[in-house]
Amino acid sequence: MKIVWYSLVALFAMNCGTMQVAQPAGEPISETTKTSTPFTDAGRVGEMMHYLASNDMKGRDTGSEGIEMAAKYIENYFRSYGLKPYFETYRDTLSNFKKPAYNIVGVVEGSDPDLKKEFILIGAHYDHIGVIDMENGDAIANGANDNASGTTTVLEFARYFGKQKTNKRTLIFALFSAEEKGLLGAKHLAKKLKEADLNLYTMLNFEMTGVPMIGKDYFMYITGYNRSNLAEVSNTYAKENLIGFLPTAKEYNLYQRSDNYAFHQEFGVPSHTFCTFDFTNFNHYHKVGDEADIMDFEHMAKVVNQMIPVLEGIANAPTQEIQLTK
Asked: What does the pLDDT look like over 131-153, one tens digit per residue?
């Protein structure tokens, strides 16, 4: 997420180690047993996070060897769980970045003959800022919370719908590159899909979901809370106060600082980012301390498990119930 800080908070320094993982890129993780109630769990989420935010990725800078490893991981993941490439391949080559860079885009076609012509895009950016100035002997900005967390969340949604095929509307799963360069991956894809006259219903983006919020009576917030009724719709399907309003997000205009915004600009449809970064619960934004070891994998698994009924409800509702606020 592109955040302007303005000296918001002075948080205590947290010293954490780094971890390298030798898991082969995209090797499928063992399935959660069918008899368990939650779809995913902390162990599975942790495996994915430790790979995506490992030192081997060198911070996943756009156009680097490290982000190429992440791209292959995502492609193999999509393939393993039955997603089809949205284009000729999973790779959508950016037209607005000088080095070779790719969004990874897969699709799960809807089951209803009419509703499948309506598209829901579920996304997150998988790039980060790479190698930066040395701090405490470490120069790799691993980008665990920003945004291996959102990437892992979206990949687990892709696994659910790729295997279960419970969606009447068609779901596009997009992992964006070059968010940290100015939302370039999302801008490229939004323009491309608009030129192709895609019938986009809504864009749901996931950003910085790695740690829980502090002292809130809701679980997540959405940026642009008052721009549509998405929070109300989400809470109805969740049957709890899942999505709330974070005043700081509005104060610092986070709505325009993540990949949802490009789709708002191009399509004018409800486009929001789900997030649990609340400006008090994480002090390693764009620093070397953004490591997988300090993420809360139980919380991340809950994000996935609590959001699946919401996504399923939105994908299967007989009408487009998410509406822009007039």
From this structure: 999 998 999 999 999 999 999 99
pLDDT at 35 over 90: no
State the CATH class of domain 42-316.
Answer: alpha beta
Which residues touch 62 (CB under 8 Å, ≥6 apart)?
Answer: 97, 99, 101, 127, 177, 178, 180, 181, 184
Query: What mean pLDDT is reported for the chain?
Result: 91
Structural tokens at position 205: 């983006």
Among 66, 75, 214, 220, smallest CA distance to 143 is for 66
Both tokens of residue 251? 């104060």
- Quick one: residue 60, left, alpha or beta (phi over 0 = left, psi -120 to 50 = alpha)? left
- Domains of the chain, by residue range, sit at 42-316
pTM: 0.90
pLDDT at 178: 98
Query: What's phi and psi for 17, nearest 5 deg?
Result: -85, 170
At residue 54, does pLDDT exceed 60? Answer: yes
Under DSSP, is residue 122 helix (H, G, I), strand (E, B) or coil? strand
For the chain, percent of residues with pLDDT exceeding 70: 89
Distance (Å, whole) CA 292 – CA 148: 9
Alpha-carbon gap, residue 324 to 313, rounded angstroms: 18
Q: Are 24 and 80 in contact (CB under 8 A)?
A: no
**What's the DSSP call for residue 226?**
G
Tokens for 244, please give them.
Answer: 């709330």
User: Within 10 Å of residue 223's Cβ, how many Cβ atoms?
Assistant: 25
Tokens of 267: 């399509």
